[in-house]
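hiii, so i know i said id send this last week but things got crazy w the move. better late than never?? heres the sequnce for the chain we talked about at the cafe, plus the structure i predicted for it. fair warning i was half asleep when i ran it
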Amino acid sequence: MAPNAELPKCISIILCDDVFRDERSKKLVIVGTFSNINGSLPVLHSRMCVLFTLTNGRGDFDFCLSIEHAETERALVQVQGPMTLRSPLDIIDYNVELLGTRFDVAGKYAVNLKANGELIATRPFFVGPPNAEATS
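okay and structure toks below
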């Protein structure tokens, strides 16, 4: 990390079907939030969005967003890339669209967000048949 760099804080992670910006208001519209992906295994989730919000950071970072099975820690998806935050006062929303994510095992999963290899946020969700304990 650069000498004056400050790791950002992630203040939200939202799983949803779609995110778009309203042209008139310039606000984000979040469609179809969820905490469960229900279905018979294997489950192929054709399209999902991960919207996360960063603040309190400064500098250049290598970011990695991954989806991992909580028990095995096996990563199903990894999206990586550079990111720059100019000021700790910035509040920036990022949307990552994931296509064709396949879940072979039921259970708890997590979206993990890392900056320069350090975990800064995690968001659990569940995959499998619907049950009374994990509802969307």
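btw Residues 19 and 25 are 14 Å apart (CA to CA). thought thatd interest u
miss u guys!!
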